[in-house]
Amino acid sequence: MNTLSYGLLSLLSHAADSGYDLMLKIQPFWPAKHSQIYPLLAQLESGGYVQHKLVVQTDKPDKKIYSITDKGLNALRNWLTLPTDEPVTRDELVLKIFCMEQGDTADILHMLETRLAYYQDQLQWLQSKKETYAQLNPSPSLGIILLMQKGEFSVKADLEWTQWAMRQVIAHEKEPNPD
Amino acid sequence: MNTLSYGLLSLLSHAADSGYDLMLKIQPFWPAKHSQIYPLLAQLESGGYVQHKLVVQTDKPDKKIYSITDKGLNALRNWLTLPTDEPVTRDELVLKIFCMEQGDTADILHMLETRLAYYQDQLQWLQSKKETYAQLNPSPSLGIILLMQKGEFSVKADLEWTQWAMRQVIAHEKEPNPD
DNA sequence: TTTTTATACGTAAATTTTGACATATGACAG
DNA sequence: CTGTCATATGTCAAAATTTACGTATAAAAA
């Protein structure tokens, strides 16, 4: 039982879902491809943590709807009492910033612009999620509210940094020698 | 040539360094164990991107000091012009928050307290780094300044969220039924 | 009408990352 | 004087993750 397995159980503790949709929904929290999700769900099922029923669809391919079992819920509750790993972030951009003096200012600015657009998309996505969730759900889950807020705090800080960094890079280019 | 390889070249573009110290220095940007660093440095050397000389020490074990070659610098400069991967963050805490309703409030609060201490340590480390760097270096590298600021923006946002989340959890516990 | 996109599942190979095992020196604490 | 810690390098196995290969349906776009 690795962290991704618990992540899947965590999603399933809210509602039963297909492997395909679990894969889509877990992306913001723990990026994983379907080639990792499907075998893991089979493994969880063989361990008795989840079970599935086949749902036949006419407009789309048939799917397997997984639901969490009592054993799965117990495993989840126990996991919540265990020490929590520190977060891990890997960002190619920071490695490039570290040696930015080696490259052209235009390339660095282009990289920062692309990243800015990425963060803006993220923020828009978050805010639309927030709206639709508030509309659909009368008594929202505290956990989901906390997570949406975490995302917003984080992306806004990244967004501000990117804009600040772009200004710094431009200022540095215009005034390379202050004497 | 994967991202970690470029990360090592990026560090080496500032100064020659040992595998051990490169391993320590790259942690904040791209976590990696020495078992990953040493073979990669050997691979980079066989590719002609870096070279090393043995430095004999009396008080400590001997070490290999790696330096970047012209070929390495060219590879680094080319890398700066290529598209940049999106950042990847994996945080067990957010998966736990998602199903926090399944556990005890005390366990969740304990998790958040531990995380709070972690972020406070990070912030302290960053600010001490900032000071020592400013003192040691008369003309600081723009890249390093940008990165230290990025870290500070990010950790401060995480810190604020954690404190906010703890207040939310406490409020939610005290007033579970508003009617 | 052909191609692309989204849905939906699956496996196999390659890459990346972690954890364990291994050795060695000097300092420092118990 | 014995164990632990920081330094320093290395290999090997296992686990986690990504990329590629593979099938299939239906809608939408080109």
Mean pLDDT of chain A: 95
Biggest sheet: strand arrangement of chain A: 1-3-2
How many helices of chain A?
7
Unreliable residue runs of chain A: none
Cα Rg of chain A: 21 Å
Spell the H/E element sequence of chain A.
HEHHEEHEHHH
Proportion of residues in extended strands of chain A: 5-15%
Structural class of chain A: mainly alpha
Distance between the termini of chain A: 61 Å
Q: Which two protein chains have the largest interface (Cβ within 8 Å of the partner's Cβ), and how many residues from each? A: A-B, 66 and 66 residues
* Apparent shape of chain A: elongated
InterPro entries (chains A, B): Tscrpt_reg_PadR_C (IPR018309), Tscrpt_reg_PadR_N (IPR005149), WH-like_DNA-bd_sf (IPR036388), WH_DNA-bd_sf (IPR036390)
Protein name (chains A, B): PadR family transcriptional regulator
Organism (chains A, B): Paenibacillus glycinis
Domain Transcription regulator PadR C-terminal (chains A, B): 89-167
